[in-house]
Write a structure and sequence with these properties.
Elements (H helix, E strand, L loop, with lengths): L1 H31 L4 E6 H6 L11 H4 L2 E8 L4 H16 L4 E8 L2 E10 L2 E10 L4 E10 L1 H11 L1
Antiparallel strand pairs: 1-2, 2-6, 3-4, 4-5, 5-6
Helix pairs in contact: 1-4
Length: 156
């Protein structure tokens, strides 16, 4: 019986590691594509953000909980658009991320995905899918929905 439990636990852990590796491969692939513009902002720079003008939003409480911010944009390149769309489709099929919200405005679509552990967000992805352009904004850290709500409330 112990052997079955250990074997099952091992297989589950390997499956989770494989899903995490697929996510890393996706973003590495996008970063290395010549037609995808990337922006990476480290934890150190994010920690300086409370001192920056953020248009009235109080991000002090959230900034310390963020690990990194990544932005990927295709600049209207059709090949890059297709790659991003396929990668996001694979991401959603992996069941590692849940869909939080979808917005459709004319031909533009915005979808928010989240990877959570218990009640804490580890990875938030905003995918903007326009007919001629795709953008991914990825926020990684360790924060709650309440942390995000505080930022939104301060903007009001």
């Amino acid at each position: 019986m112990k052997t079955k439990i250990i074997l099952t636990s091992l297989l589950l852990m390997l499956g989770l590691m494989a899903a995490q590796a697929q996510n890393s491969d996706m973003f590495e692939k996008l970063s290395n594509h010549k037609d995808v513009t990337t922006v990476y902002i480290s934890k150190s720079l994010l920690n300086m953000m409370p001192n920056l003008d953020t248009g009235g939003a109080d991000i002090k409480s959230l900034a310390g909980k963020l690990e990194q911010l990544e932005i990927y944009n295709t600049n209207g390149n059709k090949e890059a658009n297709n790659i991003i769309r396929k990668e996001v489709e694979a991401l959603t099929k992996s069941k590692t991320y849940e869909t939080l919200m979808k917005i459709k405005d004319g031909t533009d679509n915005v979808t928010f995905y989240a990877h959570k552990e218990k009640d804490r967000f580890k990875d938030l992805i905003m995918f903007v899918n326009e007919p001629d352009d795709c953008t991914i904004i990825r926020i990684m850290g360790n924060f709650t929905a309440e942390d995000i709500q505080k930022v939104m409330d301060s903007k009001k």
